[in-house]
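ok here's the first one, seq then struct tokens
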Amino acid sequence: MEPTTIREGYLVKKGTMLNSWKVVWVVLADDAIEFYKKKTDNSPKGMVPLKGATLTSPCQDFTKRMLVFKVRSTKNQDHFFQATHLEERELWVKDIKRAITCLQGGKKFARKSTRRSIRLPQNVNLSELYVLMRDQDKGVKELKVEKDKRLFSHCFTGNTVIDWLISEGKARNRPEGLMLATGLLNEGFLLPAGDVSKEAAEKRAECVFLDQTEALYYFADSGFFCEGYSSDEDEVVKEEFRGAIVKQGCLVKQGHRRKNWKVRKFILRDDPAFIHYYDPTKGEDDPLGSIHLRGSVVTAVEYVPDAKRHEADGNLFEIITSDEIHYYLQAATADERKDWIKAIQSVSKTGK
């Protein structure tokens, strides 16, 4: 019987021989993880058998890389994968864990309807707690903080988080609040901003979260940005980074010069209406480029005029900006293409 495909998509993977990180097309079957150099390849570049394998998430072996999870095979070979955003990592981890469990029990893969709760004080589920913290009315308030000639936007202090946890009855005292906040940080729901909180997070202590006014943090899916500013000019550069994130993930983009196709991470923001794209193997400090979406048109297309058939086939869409610049992109699936088009259309009409 042929293995059943459970999930597939782009992830960043660390090389098994070299330390380089590269984008690969990953296919999760009910008995193994296969990864390909390109989505269109017929033969996998490698495979990780899931029988007897173990999964670690979050994996904190790399202090400068977030959203990494590790799969260790029965031969004690470690395979490191990195997702582009939190929700994506959670979906992969949940399905891989389920596949491993089913193999151990000799059962056929079947998704559970509910997530397994993490054992925490008062049996708090971190995902549910994060949703409450993000509530615009009753959650943790995002602020602008000036520090060391830098402006941090959409962030909050460590002691604010602990205060909120206690006031909402999620923690009985500050030590218990620290345990919860550290769990949120370790799972990637909260991220450190600024030197103080980043240094503490990199130490990997038992409680890496700091209950301090000097320690800054932000929500993983917020519109956080940090920029330096001049004391003479109260002006922040890169204004387009202010917007809240509407959608993010990997797409294949055609280059304007060489017309070649490469996987890029895209982040769509609502105000101003911008979509930035990055090299997914690197950080998000410096985008490779951006597309101003205000007044743009986005539509599905069946082919790209100057592309060979084998280079880009299926799930294509085109963005035409108000300056009549054409961008051709490819989604992994038809549903993903539909979701991106819908999100971009919404932002292009309402964003500034």
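and now the second one, same deal
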Amino acid sequence: MNLEEYFQRIGFHGPHDKVDLASLTLIHKLHVMTIPFENLSMHCGEWVTMDLEDIFNKLVRSSRGGWCLESNYLFGWVLREMGFKVTMLSSKVFNSVINDFAPGEDHLIYLVEIDGKVYLADVSFGVSSQIWEPLELISGKDQPQGAGVFRLINKGEIWILEKTCRKPVVVNPEFASSSLVNKVQTFQIYCFTLEPRGVEHFKERSHFLQTSPTSLFTNKSICCQQTPTGFKVLVGLIYSVVTYKPEEGVDILDMRYITEDELDEVLKEQLNVRLQKKLMPSNKKTCYKL
């Protein structure tokens, strides 16, 4: 494990020891544009560990992505190695079915302190809820990015990340009423407290998310790659290319079914993922929005 390999993976050519907001912002954006958000291992018969060396080998050396317990964990290691002051936190993801935050603290995020200011770093949420750049931890401030306007709201001990998005325009009428299409303009993404966490806090949740029949990740195989104009994502056998059109106030969703014969090509050519084992795509009914 070394920073040079990681920087080659994401295409970063700056200094390794510059601890400032510009460096954090650039590395954050390069990471989300290069390393996909994906949970394909559990649909290939592979077990996802929280061993940092395993994660490094997978995400940096093996043309793979990962979920937050891998990708964000790796990102935190990178920031510490560079000299940033970081704090690992846990968060609860909003579930629109129960109209509340899920009970489990499943999502790993970081706070980064620079020159007396604090920023939220999260390189592994995926789809249109993915922030491309760190968000300043300040309540109520609109922070526009490619995907829309993000906002952190402080409610006492709890902080909430929310987003206001644009109107979705679905190209293929077959998917106009798809449950994957988000129709809510402003929605909550997750909530968190400022209580520091260690990696041990997430190991039980990692096991649950990989084994429980109620887990999003056992029900859906997901691979999402951010792009300079939006993102590409494969959910089961539904492949979508989403293009942000802020000047028109819309997001264009080009969605289609692919065949299992097309899986490898789409993964390699469109999503930059190369699998060692056969993927068993899954898209069972559970709450998930692009």
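notes on #2: The first strand starts at residue 37 and ends at 38. The chain has seven helices and 15 strands.
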